[in-house]
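Data availability (excerpt). The following record was deposited with the supplementary files.
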Amino acid sequence: MSDMHDDGFDGPFEGLGAGPGDGAFPDGEWDAGLLEEELRQAAAILDPVPTELRRIAVDAFVLHDLDARVAELTFDSLVDAIPVRGASDPPRMLTFSVDEVTVDVEVTAEGLIGQVLPPGPARIEVLSGPRSHARLTADAMGRFTGEAPPSGPFALRLATGREVVVTQWLRT
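Predicted structure:
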């Protein structure tokens, strides 16, 4: 030990019962369940989940559809597109895909415009958390429009007759 700080302890954990064989844990084994519970309690006290966030999470889970296939985001103009010079508020273009189903969506200040491929009629719900859903209908060519743009996180649930597809959640 250094001469600069000699208080009679051999290390920072001396006397805390942290070493193996000192009786802290039987047979020197850590109790993962006990440790996890103590960490949970500490997090609940030191950094609790806000009530509103907990409510939104529960509401979002209720919207979870176990039979639906999740369409992943394959293109987002905010990330993948080259900016156009002079465009002050270009529409956001999104493409979601799962297997043979593709959903192209344009999000503007006026609402949504999109198309489901392969083309065909579909019922579409714009999911937006605990708020009521906008219900849209795709025509025989798979085209759909919605007058109200989503605010905050949103996803689309499509029922094509044969299957249900839900897109990933995005923030506008």
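Summary of structural features: The longest helix spans residues 32-46.
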